[in-house]
Amino acid sequence: MTCPYCKAQTPLIGRGFRVTKRRGKAQRYQCKRCNRTFTQKTLVTGMWYDEETVAGVLLLHLEGVTELDIADFLGVCWRTVERWLEKFGNLLNKICSRFKPATCNTLHSDELFLKLLHRFLYVWDSCTKDSKWLTIRPSLKRNSKSAEHLLQESPRPLEANVTDGAFSYTEPVRKVHGRQVKHIVATDDHKYLNNFIEGVQSTIRRFTRPRRGFKRIHKAVNHLRRYQHYHNFIKNNVGLGNKPPAVRLGFVHYPNKANKKQRILHLLNQALSFWQKIKHRLC
Predict the structure, then answer these.
(1) Whole-model pTM?
(2) Are 39 and 15 in contact (CB under 8 A)?
(3) Cβ(36)–Cβ(13) under 8 Å?
(4) To pair with 86 at 20 to 30 A between CA atoms, which of 3, 44, 55, 76?
(5) Dist. CA 127–CA 130, nearest whole Å
(6) How far apart (Å, rounded) are the C-alpha atoms in residues 30 and 109?
(7) DSSP bridge partners of 157
(8) Sheet holding 24-31, edge to edge
C-alpha cells in the first residue's frame, strides 16, 4: 500500500478507524513521511452504497434487466444506475480487454442488426468452437472492411472459419487467415454448420431486446462490450463444465464456488489495483 498524498511506500501506522453510516468501520492509516492519515481506496469510495449493491446492479444489467427496472427496485433515479454502469463498465473493460486467446481450432462468424435512431448498427460477432470465446465488433456498414476488423480482433483459427453466405467474408478470410485456413460457407446443404453461432446470437438478442433500440452509437457499443465481457469472464458455459471461457483458458482464477456477483467484484478489484499501480508508476 502507498500513501495517496506523497506516493511513498514507507511503513504505515494504524491510527484507529473511520466510522461511516453505511460502510461501518474502515481502517485509518498514517504515513511516516508526510504524517497524513488516509483510508484505503475501494470501489465505492465516496459513494453512498456498498460494493455488494453495485455488483448486484451490474449483474442485473448483464442478465438483461433494464435501467428503469433496476432503479425502481433500488428506489433511486435511473440516471444514477446509468452512471454506475458507465463507471464500473469501463473499469471492467480495462481488465477484460487485456486477455484474448491467440488461436483456436474453428472460428464461427456472423452478423446481426441492432436498431438505432434512424439507422441500423451491424453487430459483427465471432465465437470459437472449442473455448466458446466471443468477440463482438459493432459497425455502421456491412462491408468487407468491417468483416476484416472482426477477424483481426478474433482468435486466429488453425483449421477452418465458418461463415454464412455473405460476400463480405470472402476476401477478408483469405487476406487475414491465408489459404491454409479453410473457408466453409454454411449455405444449401451445410446450413446446419451455422447453428452454433446462431445460438450465440440468440443470447445477444435476449440481452438487447428489452432496450428496444438505442439513440446513441456509443451507448450501444458500450452495451455490447459489457455483454462480451460477461459472456467470456462471468457467465457459466455448460460445454466447458459450467465454467466461463476465461477460467477454462486460465486467464483468471476465482475463489472456490464463487457466484456471479463475487466474480464481478473480483474483476473490479483486480482492475482497480492494476490501474492504481500504473498511476503510481507514472507519478
Answers:
(1) 0.85
(2) no
(3) no
(4) 3
(5) 9
(6) 55
(7) 104
(8) 12-20, 24-31, 37-39
Q: Return d(Cα 266, Cα 163) in angstroms, integer.
A: 36
- Render 170-195 in DSSP notation, one character per residue: HHHHHHHH-TTSEEEE--GGGGGGGH
Q: Please give the grid coordinates belonging to residue 138.
A: 459493432
Per-position pLDDT tens, the chain of length 283: 677 777 777 677 777 787 776 667 778 888 888 888 877 777 776 677 778 888 888 999 998 888 899 999 888 888 889 988 998 888 889 889 999 999 999 999 999 988 887 888 999 999 999 999 999 999 998 899 999 999 999 999 999 999 988 888 999 999 999 889 999 998 877 788 889 999 999 999 988 888 777 888 888 999 999 999 999 999 999 989 899 999 999 999 998 888 999 999 999 888 887 666 665 565 5
Name the CA radius of gyration of the chain, rounded: 22
Give the integer Cα–Cα distance in Å for 210 and 70: 13
Closest by CA position to 95, among listed 263, 234, 274: 274
Distances (CA, A) of 280 to 31, 94, 154, 171: 16, 17, 32, 46
Beta bridge partners of 31: 12
Residues 6+ apart with CB under 8 A from 3: 9, 10, 12, 31, 33, 34, 36, 38
Predicted confidence at residue 139, as pLDDT, reads 92
Distance CA 245, CA 107 (A): 15
Residue 216 phi, psi (nearest 5): -120, 145
- Cell readout for 20 is 461511516
